[in-house]
């Protein structure tokens, strides 16, 4: 119960302050939370830490392939780090996933 309380505390502080430390702490306290990893990945991208963001967003999409916010953020990170071919391939994969599972997206 205590771990969940720490996770909630850091998640709420991170949401209000956009402080990367609290995003990292939320992930640390609840390692299996793909939502926390997605939030950390998006915060890292906003802060210009694109390579770290890419890693967390990639993990998030492996765990939650239908997360639209993580999908958009991951595509943008790929584009911003200069891997435009990889970004295009990712977009094609997402379109195929959407066609196969339209009810999920």
Can you tell me about this structure?
The protein is mostly helical. The protein is built from 6 helices and no strands. The mean pLDDT is 94.
Instruction: List the uncertain runs.
Output: none
Strand content: under 5%
* Beta strands, count: 0
Question: Quick one: overall form?
Answer: globular
Largest sheet entry: none
Helical residues, percent: over 70%
Report the total helices. 6
Distance, first to last CA: 33 Å
Q: What string, H for helix and E for strand, traces the elements in order?
A: HHHHHH
Please state the average pLDDT score.
94
Structural class designation: mainly alpha
Radius of gyration in whole Å, from Cα?
Answer: 14 Å
Describe, in short, the structure shown.
The protein is an all-alpha fold and 105 residues long.
Describe the secondary-structure layout.
Elements: H1 2-17, H2 20-29, H3 34-46, H4 50-63, H5 68-80, H6 84-100
Helix pairs in contact: 1-2, 2-3, 3-4, 3-5, 4-5, 5-6
What keywords describe this structure?
single chain; 105 residues; mainly alpha; 6 helices; globular
């Amino acid at each position: 119960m205590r771990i969940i309380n720490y996770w909630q505390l850091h998640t709420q502080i991170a949401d209000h302050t956009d402080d990367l430390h609290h995003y990292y702490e939320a992930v640390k306290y609840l390692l299996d939370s793909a939502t926390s990893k997605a939030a950390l990945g998006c915060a890292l991208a906003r802060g210009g830490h694109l390579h770290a963001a890419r890693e967390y967003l990639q993990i998030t999409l492996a765990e939650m392939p239908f997360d639209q916010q993580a999908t958009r953020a991951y595509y943008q990170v790929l584009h911003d780090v200069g891997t435009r071919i990889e970004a295009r391939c990712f977009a094609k994969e997402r379109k195929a996933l959407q066609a196969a599972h339209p009810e999920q997206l």
